[in-house]
Specification:
The structure is a single chain. This protein has nine helices and nine strands. With about 280 residues, it is of the alpha/beta class. It has a single domain, classed as Rossmann fold, CATH 3.40.50.720. Strand 2, helix 2 and strand 3 form a beta-alpha-beta unit.
């Protein structure tokens, strides 16, 4: 990228995990809505998919791709610096990079726990910390963190993933309060199950002849059925666009009927009743 900043005719959005799923759809929608989007991904070999989609939608001139492995914190800081040097600002950060480690807590190796938190949480923290000084000085910007329904209730078989999303939720609440005096909005998006193909990227951990085998089978069958009937993920990308349009967005936006049901359960029902309902459905 050039060393001297150019004056962009559009606000700048940086999206992590943009090679597929919510990240790719958000990249295209933001470009359609007037943003210049820096679409980042760990595997830059997948950039052709992003550019192809942008070309199809007539927004190729407003989408750039960069390699960003959020677990490499020096890489994260360098990418942010390059974007600011090139375009002079980052107006929106969408922290979307992540994956899911699935399995009962007893049987998930510690290495998988660490990898899950390193990508979904510490990587998100590193990218955010790199962007914040710039936004704070300008007293402007939005940080949008893509959480999950598993960040509302911790389900059996989702311990590592839920832990990473619960950490994101607490981080975002604290950060929102810290940044209010600087006119920077921190927002959580909580998608339920959507048809993004992400389940193929899950890491599944289980032991042979596991004492939890019936629970695991029941959960996997329930999850597979939910994904087959899942709605179009464009709804999540449209929600992120809606957030970007608002001058004062609220803290949380819950997407999908299942996530909304989970949210209401957690808010309105005693834990004993939630426990009963989840055991009946998943065990």
């Amino acid at each position: 990228m050039d060393n001297a900043a150019k004056q962009s005719d559009r606000p700048i959005a940086l999206v992590t995990g943009a090679s597929s799923g919510f990240g790719l759809l958000t990249t295209i929608r933001l470009a359609q809505e007037g943003y210049r989007v820096i679409a980042t991904m760990r595997d830059i070999g997948k950039k052709d998919n992003v550019h192809g989609k942008a070309e199809q939608q007539g927004v190729a001139a407003y989408v750039e791709t960069m390699k960003l492995d959020v677990t490499n914190h020096e890489n994260a800081a360098d990418v942010v610096q390059q974007v600011i040097q090139r375009w002079g600002s980052i107006d929106v950060l969408v922290n979307n990079a992540g994956y899911a480690v699935m399995g009962v807590i007893e049987e998930v190796p510690m290495a998988d726990w660490r990898a899950q938190l390193e990508t979904n949480f510490f990587g998100m923290v590193a990218v955010t910390k790199a962007v914040l000084p710039h936004m704070r000085v300008r007293k402007s910007g939005k940080v949008i963190n893509v959480s999950s329904g598993a960040g509302i209730i911790g389900f059996s078989n989702t311990g590592p993933y839920s832990a990473s999303k619960f950490a994101m939720e607490g981080f975002s609440e604290a950060l929102r309060l810290e940044l209010l005096p600087f006119s920077i909005s921190v927002v959580l998006v909580q998608p339920g199950t959507y048809d993004t193909g992400i389940s193929a990227k899950h890491v599944y951990c289980s032991e042979p002849n596991s004492p939890y085998s019936k629970m695991i089978e029941r959960f996997n069958a329930f999850n597979a059925k939910s994904e087959q009937n899942a709605p179009d993920p464009i709804h999540v990308a449209n929600t992120i666009v809606k957030i970007c349009r608002k001058s004062h967005p609220k803290l949380r936006y819950t997407c999908g009927s299942d996530a909304k049901m989970i949210f209401l359960m957690k808010k309105l029902l005693p834990w004993r009743l939630i426990e009963w309902a989840l055991r009946k459905a998943l065990h």
